[in-house]
Specification:
about 220 residues
Length: about 220
């Protein structure tokens, strides 16, 4: 059980550490990041309950709507809602790169609990594939979401709403593509690899841009 639990939580903690250590200009309080991570774990249960009810009651007759559109939208909305209501106005959210960290933290909190429950059901044999696909994809969706939250918070007033919309719309569309690929039985494996490469490229590009915004922010605050 200990090995299974360790295998379930290790990918999330590793990815969170990676994005945390990428921030070389400022250090975000670990307590605040842990709180964001815990919020992400808590939303797992209402999300899974709603998904279970919708699937059991056959709310949507089309499986694509249930498994792809609804599931993607529900998960990304709950993550977005946590950041918007709890974190966006937090005093520790004080530079553009913080959005990256908080987005990744909330997403990985959700992905970690989901991973634990999945491995308990299907065994440790799926741990590696879960680490490189669902867990990492959630982290990368969170990075993109957090990037636009950071842009929204520190942008001029006329751009705030635009970036706020992108903070939910962009990860939602990426999640739809991801779930759509997995729904292609038989040959999804040929599509998921290039998509994951693209997702990593996009997320790391956002990380680089967030660093540039951070430098500009610190310069404007006369801190460098």
């Amino acid at each position: 059980m200990f090995i299974l639990f360790s295998a379930a939580i290790a990918p999330g903690l590793a990815l969170l550490s990676y994005f945390y250590l990428r921030n070389q200009m400022a250090t975000e309080p670990r307590k605040t990041l842990l709180q964001a991570f815990l919020f992400g774990t808590l939303i797992t249960f209402p999300i899974m309950f709603i998904q279970y009810v919708v699937k059991t009651e056959e709310t949507f007759s089309n499986p694509f709507i249930t498994e792809v559109l609804f599931s993607s939208g529900l998960e990304e909305f709950f993550k977005w809602l946590v950041i918007f209501t709890v974190i966006l106005r937090h005093i520790e959210f004080d530079d553009p790169y913080d959005g990256i960290l908080y987005g990744a933290s909330v997403s990985l909190g959700f992905a970690t609990v989901e991973n634990v429950l999945y491995l308990l059901s299907f065994g440790i044999d799926t741990a590696f594939m879960r680490a490189i696909l669902p867990v990492s994809s959630h982290a990368l969706f969170g990075v993109v979401m957090g990037y636009y939250f950071g842009k929204s918070k520190f942008a001029n007033n006329d751009k705030k709403a635009e970036y706020l919309i992108l903070s939910i719309l962009t990860p939602f569309l990426l999640h739809i593509i991801y779930n759509s690929i997995l729904s292609f039985k038989g040959y999804w494996v040929y599509l998921i690899a290039p998509f994951m490469f693209y997702l990593w490229w996009l997320a790391l590009k956002k990380v680089k841009l967030a660093h540039q915004h951070l430098l500009q922010h610190l310069f404007e605050q006369n801190k460098i």
